[in-house]
Amino acid sequence: MEKTFNVTQKNTDRLISVVLLFFCVFLYREIQQYSPYGKVFPNAIVLILSVFSAIYFFKSWIALFTAKAGPQEELYRMVEDYPSFLIVFPLTVVYVFYLLTFLGFFASSFLFAAAVILSIKIVRNEYNWKVLLIYFIFSGLFSYVVYYVFRYMLRVRLPSGIFF
Hints:
By secondary structure, the protein is mainly α. The chain has helices spanning 9-31, 40-62, 71-103, 105-123, 129-153. Helix 1 packs antiparallel against helix 2, helix 3 (71-103) packs antiparallel against helix 4 and helix 4 runs antiparallel to helix 5 (129-153).
């Protein structure tokens, strides 16, 4: 008699949330070996990751205690997001392996964010050109803020290309 284990998306989310929390604890313990000045930025990153992991943990486990949509509706939502994944994954590969080295960090990050937002909104048939314009402006501002913080405040060298 062979036992099988039925892995659903909810079980996977619960497992990943627990693993992420343990990973945050592990990273925090490893960072404590650094000098006081060398562990400031890694501690901030681990703190942010811990907050998001805790949110993910509670969202994945709270579903046990609340009534959720039926399995048919949940399957429909998963199938609805599949074309988005098929578009965003190749965009990510192009961004990491080509755009960063050719265009530089700022221009490629802006184009990548704009392309991802546009493709997801079009696939989900949720596009409104005024809202998309706001998203494009936000992606440009976000790319600039990240560029400025890493380049000038933290003095981290970012990939440079034909623009800057």
